[in-house]
Amino acid sequence: MRNNIMKKIKILQLTLLIFNFISYPQGYDNPLNIQGINHTNSLSASLSAVGDVSILVDDDAGMLFTNPATLKSIKDLQFSVGGLQYYSKTSQVQHYTPLKYYSNFSLLMEGLTDLISDPDTSLSASNPGDTVQRPFDAIKPNWSKSKNSFIPVHFIAAYPILLFDKKFVVAGGVVNYIDLNHYYQNNNVLSPPIGSERPIPVPLPPNNPDSTFKTLWSQYIRSREGSIRGYGLSLTNVLSEKISIGVSGMYLNGTSDDFEYRLGRGRLVFYYNYFRLDSTNFNRRETRSGTSQFRGYELTLSGIYTGKNINFSVTIKPPNTIIRDFDTNILTQSPDTSYEVSYNGNDEIKVPWRGAVAMSINLLQNLKLGLEYEYRPYENMKYKNPEGKETNPWISASIFKVGILYNPIYWLTLRAGVRGESEIFEPEGNPLIGEPVRYSIYSAGFGITYANLIFNFTYQYFLMKYQDMWQTNVNFNKEFRNSLKFDLKINFNLNE
Q: What is the mean pLDDT of residues 390-399?
């Protein structure tokens, strides 16, 4: 008797440990709070075309918040307007492995129990484990979602002035700086998660009729739609023919529509060598809808050294803070009752020092190669929740970029590039702990100059794939995006 009690206590302790301390950086059922804030937009079509290698871009007012020192080459009053059209598709496919003692579990999770008939329980050798556990709904594990959207990227003006025999370039405008759009779904959320491996695996119930392991089964969806705009100015100083410096600052402000949905699908009760599905939690719905208001600031410092055939650039972004004020309505519905409450508050993130170093090489008179390394130590980012507790939920996401620029004739510029991209989360069950989800973004584009007009056009493509792994299953997550980015610049020579 004492041994059975001690086994139950140990199972309870392990379950509570897993339930409270395992973190799921991207998936499963993390609540919606600061998702999307790390997705900054590339603000210039020509910059996107060369893989975001900023030192390859000149005479472009759209660079004022990325690398303000590059505005040194602007000679006339310039107005620039840009936009982005994209199509994206996100999907998840789940595969479950048959379990030694719970053979029906994988069929239930994959929605395949309708393919088998009920066993004959009248046979003398039958046992409770022979009963086929069937879902109460028609939800399948796999899903996909697509989105087609247009985003105005920037409206900017820049003007060169001569002061104390030195050239300065002043620029200002509004940009769509951060894309807050975010979507995640998991149709087989188990709470607590029986397949987790960290910090420790979930143990099986002991061979005792009174010992069970209970977990709630539900569908979870979260989404956010919105953006953060930047309003600001930049100042560039051409110190000499070889050295230019720049500084920019912007005020960040934006809103998003937030949505979370959890639908109860039942409760799984695991015994030593079989399990049961009952209707506890079935059809219980929790819907969270509301808005978030974001505000903050960002500064950028940069410098460029121009050599005969090799150029260098350094960009530094000091720490900044973004605050989110949210207002959420929570509607809870079940077959027997329904109630609604409102919740509001604020949280914030403190982003650490970041920076980039870049180099360009003149391979030919009309052909340039550019390289850039962007340092993003996001593991030092501090998130303060509404209760005032600080954590470091992100991981480092530094990236490398390569671009090429070719001018076959004076009015045509061809560009191409590839850059790495890193998310601020790692896959569940990641064998390389701390290694983020990584993928590549490929781009190509052109620029056409006619009289005082400059038109830039860029195509971008990326495919992000990663696998979340548990003891019971693997989730294959995929997102791809096709983007068309363009901007139009008009130059006015006010000295004529």
A: 93
- Higher per-residue pLDDT: 41 or 125: 41
The neighbour count for residue 219, using CB atoms within 10 Å, is 20
Residues spanned by the domain of 280: 2-492
Q: What is the mean pLDDT of residues 431-460?
A: 95
- Maximum distance among all alpha carbons in the chain? 102
Q: In the predicted model, is pLDDT for residue 12 greater than 50?
A: no
Query: In the 3-class helix/strand/coil scheme, how is the chain assigned residue by residue?
Result: CHHHHHHHHHHHHHHHHHHHHCCCCCCCCCCCCCCCCCCECCCCHHHHHCCCCHHHCCCCHHHCCCCHHHHHHCCCEEEEEEEEEEEEEEEEEEEECCCCCCHHHHHHHCCCHHHCCCCCCCCCCCCHHHCCCCCCCCCCCCEEEEEEEEEEEEEEEEEEEEECCEEEEEEEEEEEEEECCEEEEEEEEEECCCCCCCCCCCCCCCCCCCCCEEEEEEEEEEEEEEEEEEEEEEEEEECCCCEEEEEEEEEEEEEEEEEEEEEEEEEEEECCCCEEEECCCCCCEEEEEEEEEEEEEEEEEEEEEECCCEEEEEEEECCEEEEEEEEEEEEEECCCCEEEEEEEEEEEEEECCEEEEEEEEEEECCEEEEEEEEECCHHHCEEECCCCCEECCCCCCCEEEEEEEEEEECCEEEEEEEEEEECCCCCCCCCCCCCCCEEEEEEEEEEEEECCEEEEEEEEEEEEEEEEECCCEEEEEEEEEEEEEEEEEEEECCCC
- The span from the CA of 380 to the CA of 394, in Å, is 8
| Mean pLDDT estimate for the chain | 90
pLDDT at 16 over 70: no
Tens-place pLDDT, residues 344-367:
999 999 999 999 999 999 999 999
How many residues are present in the chain?
Answer: 496
Q: How many structural domains does the chain have? A: 1
CATH at 227: 2.40.160.60
Q: State both tokens at 321.
A: 């803070």
Q: Is the pLDDT of residue 125 over 70?
A: no
User: Facing residues of 463 across strands?
Assistant: 480
Average pLDDT for 148-177: 95
237 has a pLDDT exceeding 50: yes
